[in-house]
Amino acid sequence: MAQEIELKLELTRDAANAIAVSDVLANAPKISQQCSIYFDTPESRLAKAGLSLRIRESGGKRVQTIKSDRGNAAGLFTRTERERTVQDDTPVLDDATLISPVLQDCADLIAPVFEVQIERRTWTLNEHDAEIELVLDRGEVIAGERRSPICELELELKHGPPTALFAIARRLAAVAPVRIGVLTKAERGYRLAGPVMKAVTAAPILISNEMSSAQAFQHIVQSCLRHFRLNEPLICGDDRAAALHQARVALRRLGSAFAVFKADIDHRGAGLADEVRWLASELGDARNLDVLIERTKPGSLQDQLAAARNRAYDRVAVILALPRARLLFLDLTEWVTTGGGLSATGNGAANDRPLQECAEAALTRFRRKVSRRKHLANATDETRHEIRKTAKKLRYTAEFFAALFKTPRQSRRYKRFLAALETLQDRLGALNDLATAKSMLETLCLAGNRHAAKVSGKGRRKRLLRLAAVAHKDWVGTKQFW
């Protein structure tokens, strides 16, 4: 059983061509054609267990590989793998494969699920006291009648410090645009074989009390990065509104993680947190216009708002293509996975402080901030917006640490607490939508449109204020689950 440490980067074919002839890769590559068949049961038992089973043919030789993947990996993948040569495209499933307990009595149901056909170009780089195997894969995933292109770089660390992977990645990024990759080839295949992909919601955060605060923070950050990157490519597609919304949720969750562990974050981390806030704000206009158009009836006003939304999405595409945005996720990945992240000697001593203690302190802090704002009706729009943002942080923090509170009583209280908090968020969100609509219509010089008053919610504000006050009182009355 070997361990593989690998940095994945996604890029376009034009970018791949530019990198392949650049000074970064001065030597001639080794070129091979590879065809990999991935196997599983009809119920995808291996995938659900975090395993992949493939047989790869290259140069007349076949190698069977079983890999164990971490579900929240983003950019930097650390995986165990077991390989053996085989004679044909039939998997060898003896006790040495270590997957018999997963398959149980279903070994005879193992069958091909999809194929990956690629041209692989391989370079060996010896830099920064490290040996790195860099491969450029171009080809496609095939699942039945469906096909999806692959163009990615993999930087595998043979020996040396993981920071060397990121140093090479930055040199590549200076030649052509690259982005952190979050999908293995196995994941690409399973996604292609399944339903057509839509916007992706946040995955559960699986942490435990055995983790240090620093380990939990790393796990949470990687989950948020993966959430964002899975939605980013969809922002230019048919499901763009939902994808943009989920991308912003990922950034807000990431910002909340920084807020939870604020006492232990170093200077570089504080700068990265600022960049996360910058990117989230840059996506705001497009999201606000999506919400506003949903409340607008067909007609001249909706047409003008739709035109403004198209311009906003064009700007989003420009922002996401900027080196500032692309390199943010490379910087975050390096910082959180290669010894940065939380300080072991800071105010909170993140590697020594029990995770439960950290979770309870953060939940109590955010709850106190939301609870003390009792007079919502008399508050300004800005103040209610700040309360709403803190309520979001509280909700995301509760979701981050939900796995730590699993007694029957805690589970019951958790459900009631989250339900009441979500109702409060919805009420405050409706009020914020009114304020945002008014501001957006004025900015676009559309406040004089005869339908503008209805869209901006004139006449609904008093009722929403009353509902928000009731929701706040109900939530304050719920018992904490920690």
TrEMBL record:
Ranges for domain CHAD:
210-482
Q: Which segments constitute the CYTH domain? A: 2-196
Q: InterPro entries under this entry?
A: CHAD_dom (IPR007899), CHAD_dom_sf (IPR038186), CYTH-like_dom_sf (IPR033469), CYTH_domain (IPR023577), YgiF (IPR039013)
Q: Transmembrane ranges?
A: none
User: This protein is called what?
Assistant: CHAD domain-containing protein
Q: Which organism is it from?
A: Sphingomonas qilianensis
